[in-house]
Amino acid sequence: MTAATELLSPPGTVALHGEDPAWQALLRQGAPGEGGVPFLDGESLLHALYGPLCAMRRRGSTYVVGHLAQSLDGRIATTCGVSRWLSGDEDLLHTHRMRAIADAVLVGASTVQHDDPQLTVRLCAGEHPTRVILDPERRLDGSQKVFTDGKAPTLLLVAADRMGREPRCGQAEVIPISRGEHGLDPFEIRRVLALRGLHWLFVEGGGITVSRFLAAGALDRLQITVAPVIIGSGRPSLVLPEIHDLAHSLRPRTRRFLLGDDTMIECAFHE
Ligand SMILES: NC(=O)c1ccc[n+]([C@@H]2O[C@H](COP(=O)([O-])OP(=O)(O)OC[C@H]3O[C@@H](n4cnc5c(N)ncnc54)[C@H](OP(=O)(O)O)[C@@H]3O)[C@@H](O)[C@H]2O)c1
Fold first, then answer.
1. Is the CB of 219 under 6 A from ligand 1?
2. What is the pLDDT of residue 164?
3. Cα–Cα 20 to 30 A to 91, which of 47, 71, 239, 255?
4. pLDDT higher than 70, residue 41
């Protein structure tokens, strides 16, 4: 497929304000032309970026968007797992907006272990998504915020053979998932979450978790925010099975957005 790239925001003009009334209208009603949000001056980025994502949400079928913030040299954290704050404020606000659109936000066990994130919506208007933690071996001890703060429904996905007798981990419900060829099967995860009414999924990291969804063909879109930083070592962003011929590389349709000093490239694999 031929790559088609659009540059949707000229340098230095992006202003993503957390309590922007246009954002709240977009969340409530959807994209322009699909629900009647007025198109106001200065809000083109907001509508261009989130309008199609909100539209997918209204379709009601499962839709999965991954996101990673990485350095110029393709790292998402230092070797010992420090990732705060690789990208800038605009990308942080963007992740909160993605959480607000999503039914569920998914992260891998290592992200919970290193970051102890809340995974709630705090920088913009919107409801907290259900938090989903992928911990097949049940190595997290339940002391982290997502298991104790009670701020949003939380699901802990574990390998079916590690389910044991304990149906809860702190305040989180433990759900068994069958193992696939490479860990928990992303399509089984999508299916199990859809049965609970969780259709629009935001896979927020880390690199291993997003890579497994991508390798399985279970991502509909992937957003990579590139920060102008060189780390030179550390945890990798995407890692996929080796290919020997560039003809086998993925060449999705892309859109580019400038988020402050960072550039976000959004890849669309499926519409
Ligand atoms: N820059 C960013 O955008 C960003 C975002 C999030 C996190 N981070 C940083 O990235 C680091 C963590 O990322 P990471 O890539 O090392 O790990 P990760 O993706 O957070 O977690 C990976 C672990 O989660 C489990 N897992 C995830 N998907 C699975 C699947 N499909 N099947 C089975 N198990 C699955 C596995 O646990 P087991 O090993 O127990 O099998 C796997 O090792 C942290 O340092 C964090 O600070 C950065």
1. no
2. 86
3. 239
4. no
Which DSSP letter does residue 71 get? Answer: -
Q: Is residue 35 part of a domain?
A: no
Q: Which ligand 1 atom minimizes the distance to the CA of 137? A: 40
Q: Is 214 helix (H, G, I), strand (E, B) or coil?
A: helix
Task: Take atom 47 of ligand 1 and give the residue whose Cα is closest.
Answer: 83
d(C-alpha 153, C-alpha 112), whole Å: 16
Residue-wise pLDDT tens digits, 83-123: 999 999 999 999 999 999 999 999 999 999 999 999 999 99
Domain count, the chain: 1
Residue 98 belongs to a domain? yes
Quick one: which atom of ligand 1 is closest to the CA of 76?
A: 1
Its pTM stands at 0.91
**Would residue 54 count as lying in a domain?**
no
Q: What is the token pair recorded at 165? A: 């007798």
Q: What is the maximal distance between C-alpha atoms in the chain?
A: 56
- Cα 188–171–175 angle (5° rounding)? 20
Integer Cα distance of 266 and 264 in angstroms: 6
Full domain range(s) for residue 147: 5-9+61-231+250-268
Any ligand 1 atom below 6 A from CB of 237: no
- Could you please report the per-residue DSSP string of 116-129? -------SSSSPPP
Flag whether 238 is in a domain.
no
pLDDT tens-digit profile of 129-163? 999 999 999 999 999 999 999 999 999 999 999 99
List the beta strands (DSSP E) in 95-251.
104-108, 130-134, 154-159, 168-169, 172-177, 179-180, 183-184, 200-205, 221-226, 235-236
According to the model, what pLDDT value does residue 165 have?
A: 81
